[in-house]
Amino acid sequence: MLLAQKGRNAEDELTRALAEWHMQVRRIPSRTAPEATILMLSEIHRAGAPKRGAG
């Protein structure tokens, strides 16, 4: 699991990342900055690559 603190461009960055990566994403609103979010990422693997433990 990866926690990433992101600012107002989080959705744009996530959209770009999802072009090359597959992952489960949970968005947690920041308590300190209304435009920020915390992304909780799991099951991360490169697009086209087999999932870890598969096979």
Distance between the termini: 22 Å
In what range is the share of β-strand residues? Answer: 35-45%
Shape: elongated
H/E order of the elements? Answer: EHEE
Q: Detail the poorly predicted runs.
A: none
Helix content: 10-25%
Alpha-beta classification: alpha+beta
For the sheet with most strands, the description reads: 3 strands, antiparallel
Strand segment count: 3
Number of domains: 1
Could you report the average pLDDT, rounded to the nearest whole number?
91
Order of strands in the sheet with most strands: 1-3-2
Radius of gyration: 13 Å
Report the total helices.
1
Entry summary:
With 55 residues, the protein is of the alpha+beta class.
Task: Walk me through what this model shows.
- The chain is an alpha+beta fold and 55 residues long.
- The protein has one domain.
- It is 16% helix and 44% strand.
- It has 1 helix and 3 strands.
- It has one helix at residues 10-18; strands at 2-6, 21-29, 37-46.
- It has a 3-stranded antiparallel sheet with strand order 1-3-2.
- Strand 2 (21-29) and strand 3 form a beta hairpin.
- The radius of gyration is 13 Å and the shape is elongated.
- 0% of the residues are buried.
- The model has no long low-confidence stretch (mean pLDDT 91).
